[in-house]
């Protein structure tokens, strides 16, 4: 004998609660259907709208492309259902980078940084984005030149030739301002303010512009170079008069490092000059907020890294040269 189904009457409050549960479930199901490629397209569009530099956007596209390879190889279902990603998948991605692609810690962290920024633009920013942890590198150090190494480098260019004199000024400007190599090659004659002694950096790595002060000595050198260039558009040019590129700067600095015999002691690059500028500025008592502004960092995080690294050197120098040793 079949039991008759009982008619159940629900109150309006109970009906509203049920509708809320169904609505919530439907929303979850809808969210889970968001495709990875659609989110990437939206993210890159936001980066462009924010005015981020071309190099920064290329960085995100390149690093996130590797994450897509991982999804294709290991978690293809997430391509159509990306919001099903969880913290365990991130750990598997780290394993994939290290053991499949042979990535080093610095490279892994670079890709995790891009991924974390991307995920922060999605509904997963709290559930997954907040759980992404970078790999610790106990040996991490921001390398800077010693005074001896800088002097050795500056002796290498033949200042009696145009390229040698230009390269000498490049190193002096990098040391004097801490600007990036991309910023250096993009400098135009009209970016130079000879009256207030500064240079205008137009749209740096973070998409922001800034004004960087220059010493009298370096300003004089730049003015001489401008005369040699016949006041052409770009400050740093080839012997043929075309704009200098970053690859040439990289190769030139590396060559001078070899000639100076310091290439095995230090990585000779524009970025090492940048670290050296920061180091010397801190040791000379620079205000960290001014240093942040000059270097073009959006936050104080990197400046704090410099301070933490070089504060100990300041203390050692004080201990060694303290005037009280004479009494």
TrEMBL record:
GO MF entry, a single one: DNA binding
Gene3D superfamilies assigned: 1.10.150.130, Intergrase catalytic core
Pfam name, any one: Phage_integrase
GO process annotations (BP): DNA integration; DNA recombination
Tyr recombinase domain segment(s): 140-319
Keyword terms of this UniProt record: DNA recombination, DNA-binding
Domain Core-binding (CB) as annotated: residue spans: 34-123
Sequence similarity: Belongs to the 'phage' integrase family.
Name used for this protein in its record: Recombinase XerD
